[in-house]
Specification:
32% of the residues lie in helices and 25% in strands. The strands form 5 sheets. Strands 1, 2, 3, 4, 5, 6 and 17 form a 7-stranded mixed beta sheet that branches. The protein contains 14 helices and 22 strands. The protein has helices spanning 16-27, 49-54, 56-75, 90-115, 175-178, 195-206, 226-239, 293-296, 332-346, 375-381, 396-401, 429-441, 446-450, 460-470, and strands spanning 5-12, 32-36, 118-121, 123-130, 133-139, 144-153, 157-159, 172-173, 187-191, 210-214, 242-244, 248-254, 259-264, 270-275, 277-280, 284-286, 319-321, 360-362, 367-372, 385-391, 407-413, 419-426. It is of the alpha/beta class. It has 3 domains: 5-158 and 285-353, FAD/NAD(P)-binding domain, CATH 3.50.50; 172-282, FAD/NAD(P)-binding domain, CATH 3.50.50.60; 358-470, FAD/NAD-linked reductase, C-terminal dimerisation domain (Enolase-like, domain 1). Helix 1 (16-27) runs parallel beside helix 4 (90-115), helix 3 packs antiparallel against helix 4 (90-115) and helix 3 packs parallel to helix 6. Helix 7 (226-239) links the parallel strand 10 (210-214) and strand 11. Bound molecules: flavin-adenine dinucleotide and 1,4-dihydronicotinamide adenine dinucleotide. 1,4-dihydronicotinamide adenine dinucleotide is lined by residues 162, 191-197, 199, 214-217, 249, 281-284, 329-331, 361-363. InterPro entries: Class-I_Pyr_Nuc-Dis_Oxidored, FAD/NAD-bd_sf, FAD/NAD-binding_dom, FAD/NAD-linked_Rdtase_dimer_sf, Lipoamide_DH, Pyr_nuc-diS_OxRdtase, Pyr_nucl-diS_OxRdtase_dimer. This is Dihydrolipoyl dehydrogenase. Its main location: cytoplasm. Its cofactor is FAD. Its EC number is 1.8.1.4.
Amino acid sequence: MSNAKQFDVVVIGGGPGGYIAAIRAAQLGFNTACIDEWANAKGGPAPGGTCTNVGCIPSKALLQSSEHYEHAGHGFKEHGIEVSGLSLNLAQLLKRKDGVVKANNDGILYLFKKNKVSFFHGRGTFAGAGEGGYTVNVSGQTTDTLQAKHVIVATGSNARELPGAAFDEKLILSNTGALAIDAVPANLGVIGAGVIGLEMGSVWRRLGAKVTVLEGLPTFLGAVDEQIAKEAQKLFTKQGLSINLGCKIGAITKGENNVTVEYADAKGEAQKATFDKLIVSIGRVPNTNGLGIESVGLKTDERGFIVVDDECRTNLPNVWAVGDVVRGPMLAHKAEEEGVAVAERIAGQHGHVNFNTIPWVIYTSPEIAWVGKTEQALKAEGVAYKAGTFPFMANGRARALGDTNGMVKFLADATTDEILGVHIIGPMASELISEAVVAMEFKASSEDIARICHAHPSLSEATKEAALAVDKRSLNF
Ligand code: FAD
Ligand code: NAI
């Protein structure tokens, strides 16, 4: 008889994919364990993964604080509020962010207790498979041996390094360092104008840094609807972000207190720029470090992602994988949906994730949010569509807020009027997009939204008006 602790389900990784899968499995009556190795500054457990510790949550805390600072600096004047003696206490701003993170860590530990999920702080490593199921060793902060019929792998992702420019988190920063710079750099370089580059670039620009973004591709935000991306580029440039497209990055050399990037610009001309700090945000790579996948023969693809089918089944019976470590968008809510669906499948239910209605949000100011197809994708696929847009400039609530940049854009099937995509750049786009997600889940037409009563004055009226604009019958524009 083995001394291993027996479980029905062991989840490796306590990020949004893993901790949510563990809670759902426990709710469904399974004896469930979750192993996570993330440690806080004192070495204690800090479940929640990248998202809680160095991703979604701390970045949004910094975005909020830096936006307040910027508003206090210029935005309030228009409202007749004059602030004098404004100063930045960066240490307090970072402390608040750390407090927000800790509240989320503690919240997850509480949820584990409430749902009777056994939490193990340490690294989980596959140690073999046998009649009793899979054996997973826990090492590091705690040492244990667990055994379970089902294992859910949710080990997430890490920031991708540029060759020859390893992260030191002092001069060359991944998301981890970018969220913890302890003095506002005068000159900040960012390689990669993706989601992290724009969000973190916005934070440090608002706090006073001169921010230069170097992007490899010739187009800005290629995955975003072109009309929206164009508007975003115009607004971010006006805010002071220097966005340089089509850059081919060459040597990166570290000095004592700065870092120099050599690159060819869009015209192919050699350039050299020196920064106090350099954020490298060029995408993320799946993380299977120390997981012991070889010991059980868990298959990964050529890019390191664990290979799964549509239902998150790996090549091994009863081993599942969810979140950033598998194909699909690297988003916390996608990881969560997969975690729930897998727990339900283990219980014999029909867990389901609809990849066509996963919303995306970029938390810049204005925010950018979308769901479904872009106009360029519909054109490329030869789908006949109708488009309707409505600018926030014509929305009463946006005017009252003093936040009139941007628009809502609807794309609907030319024949059936079914909504195919909704794209928003503007205030609270992250919240407004939910209406479009619900509508698309229920296969609504643009007319359905156009005929629903929306509160006045509200930003959501812009959504209704964009739906009306699909049939060229906006009322307020
Ligand atoms: P992770 O969150 O990476 O969690 C994996 C966990 O597993 C980690 O705690 C890790 O330590 C642990 N682990 C790994 N291997 C082992 C092992 N062998 N044993 C034990 N534990 C292990 N997404 C959004 O949807 N919205 C956002 O606003 C957003 N903002 C982001 C901002 C930044 C700066 C970054 C970097 C990412 C952001 N993301 C955002 C993406 C989001 O963080 C990820 O998609 C999400 O965290 C993926 O969840 P996951 O559970 O798959 O992995
Ligand atoms: P990203 O994929 O969003 O953007 C990376 C950018 O770097 C791209 O524009 C790419 O063209 C560029 N790039 C790649 N290699 C380059 C090179 N060698 N030189 C110059 N440019 C190069 O990746 P990012 O910003 O690192 O974020 C990773 C992921 O984290 C995102 O894709 C997203 O899934 C998630 N995330 C989500 C957020 C949200 O939902 N709000 C916020 C932050 C991250």
